[in-house]
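Practice problem: predict the structure.
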Amino acid sequence: MDFEARRRLYLDRIETGLDAALAGWRSGAEAPETRVEDAAAYALLGGGKRLRAMLALAAGEVCGLEAARAERLAIAVETLHAYSLVHDDLPAMDDAETRRGQPSVHRQFDQATAILAGDQLLTYALGHLADEPTALRALSGAAAQMVRGQMLDLLSENEAVSLDLPALERLQAQKTGAIIRFACEAPALVVGSEAAAQALGDYGRHLGLAFQITDDLLDAVSDAETLGKPVGADALAGKATFVTLLGVEAARARAAQEISAARAALSGLDGHINDNGAALAFLSSLAEFVLSRHH
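Answer:
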């Protein structure tokens, strides 16, 4: 099975799992309170790359984790990611009018509903791992790092906190990288393989940084129609990004360097995996996919 076919297979599993999970979570709601559930569904089921969920599924296969348990991790991390996007788009944060080519949640509904929908998605994400305490602790820790990273990002934008390259790398390792790293290493943590968790965590750390650098590049050189969200907001706000600190070409080179490091980290899985090689090959190809994406 080639990369694209496997990616589609993972996407089908993820969308089916998200639909089923959301149906169960909202089953006790009654009108008119279902407005918050409608907003949560709008955020969670509105498309996206499903990168974090795919990472959890592939890493689960690499580690020999049962499919149902890997899917539980995938659903939880994707739901938590959706919560973060809802809150990131709020006027008090990035004030984004669109997300994934459609109105952001606070524009489609209202600000209060968006806040509550984000709260609900976070609650659902953590609750979904109630039977996986090791993963639950790891996701909670990654989410805390994400919040700290967002705080630093806001301080750099609104409180004139200056960021040099090491500080920006720390910011993004928390804001973007922590959840991506969780998706990669959580299956290994669940099966109790420290060596696999180290290798997959290193892979996720480099992949997360490459993802953010690529995001900065897209914001600088892409257009809103292609990207599905506003572009140029970082430059307008005067925010430090990998493009503003390194320049476009150096940022591209750094992203490629991080992808190479991510793929090299996978060699640390030798002797510590139960996979036939297909999922591992997918992770290697997914790194290149992140580097070459256009939205």
